Amino acid sequence: GNSVTQMEGPVTLSEEAFLTINCTYTATGYPSLFWYVQYPGEGLQLLLKATKADDKGSNKGFEATYRKETTSFHLEKGSVQVSDSAVYFCALRGSARQLTFGSGTQLTVLP
Amino acid sequence: DAGITQSPRHKVTETGTPVTLRCHQTENHRYMYWYRQDPGHGLRLIHYSYGVKDTDKGEVSDGYSVSRSKTEDFLLTLESATSSQTSVYFCAISDTGGADEQYFGPGTRLTVT
After folding, report:
1. Rounded distance, CA B23 to CA B21, Å?
2. Are B24 and B38 in contact, with CB atoms under 8 Å apart?
3. Calpha distance B82→A75 (Å, rounded)
4. A96 — pLDDT class (breaks 50, 70, 90)
5. CA distance A87 to A105
6. B6-17 tens-digit pLDDT
7. Between the N and C ends of chain B, which has fewer C-beta atoms within 10 Å?
8. How far does the CA of residue A70 sit from the closest CA of chain B (Å)?
């Protein structure tokens, strides 16, 4: 079946630091890949997505590239802000059209 | 923001009692989903619906049932609550089952004592 593996958290960074959160997946066929973000006390929001190999999703300074050869979709941001503190979830949607989520990575950005 | 509400937002109940959580949408989206969120597990799909009266099981459906009698409402019932069902429950909607994103509600925190 489908699965998503994210790097273990929590991750703590200083403001303006570079962020990478690793995500790898296992799936049959050609899944679509997503990053969702959950701010404290809220539901999940879509951050970015990519639907085919080599696509780059981007939003709010965050980027992730769909790498089929390494089955990865790592999230990056060049300069994080305190307001980026949240839990980040990598997810995939396979042929069954259901989302499979990773376990989430807690990010804390210190001023 | 997508118009999704969940009720109640918080509930404490005792083991063995039935519990119903409600998800209400104003977007007229066809698909609706129930997930549970637990530490170390991310979100796991409980049940989903692809139309009125059309539902199917997800990854962790045991002990849960759902109903969808109209487009805007999707109910999740714990027939006899157990402590292992203590969790945060999220409803989500999407317009199609294809490439569109899912929009999530604010969540319901359920504690079973």
Report:
1. 7
2. no
3. 37
4. low
5. 5
6. 999 999 999 999
7. N
8. 22
